[in-house]
Design a protein that fits this description.
The chain is mainly beta. It has 1 helix and 6 strands. The protein has a domain of about 70 residues: Thrombin, subunit H. It has a 6-stranded antiparallel beta barrel. The chain starts with 14 loop residues before the first strand and ends in a 21-residue tail after the last helix. GO terms for molecular function: cyclic-di-GMP binding.
């Protein structure tokens, strides 16, 4: 029997955002920008902390706790131990999702019947 893990679908839809935050690690505060957010976690650009470390994300006067799942030189992915269900960061996620649901205006849409050419030849 193979011991390979099969990839599983994420439990939450990720949403592209641009939210400036401050991340508090054990020894330092780092400014960063959340570029990808869901109820279960986020990708933060401009900030990097060691994988498996715990941190706090400060936004809108509130704190959201997180665990660093992966880290690169200038970005990291965090998981929230408690799903976002309220608060400033959750409200920002809802606003971003609502904005992405708005369909683009149909500028060239008209109610004229379909016809060929300027004179309406069929």
């Amino acid at each position: 029997m193979d011991n390979f893990r099969t990839p599983t679908a994420r439990g939450h839809k990720r949403t592209a955002v641009s939210i400036d935050v401050t991340v508090n690690g054990v020894l330092n505060f780092v400014d960063g920008r959340i570029t990808d957010l869901s109820e279960g976690g986020a990708r933060i650009g401009g900030a990097s902390m060691p994988a498996r470390s715990r941190c706090e994300i400060h936004y809108g006067g509130q704190v959201t706790y997180a665990v660093v799942m992966w880290s690169e030189y200038d970005r990291m992915g965090v998981r929230f131990p408690y799903e976002l269900a309220h608060g400033a960061l959750y409200n920002a996620l809802k606003i971003a999702r609502d904005a992405s649901m708005v369909e683009p205006a149909q500028i060239f849409h008209s109610n004229r019947p379909t016809m060929f050419g300027r004179r309406g030849l069929s």
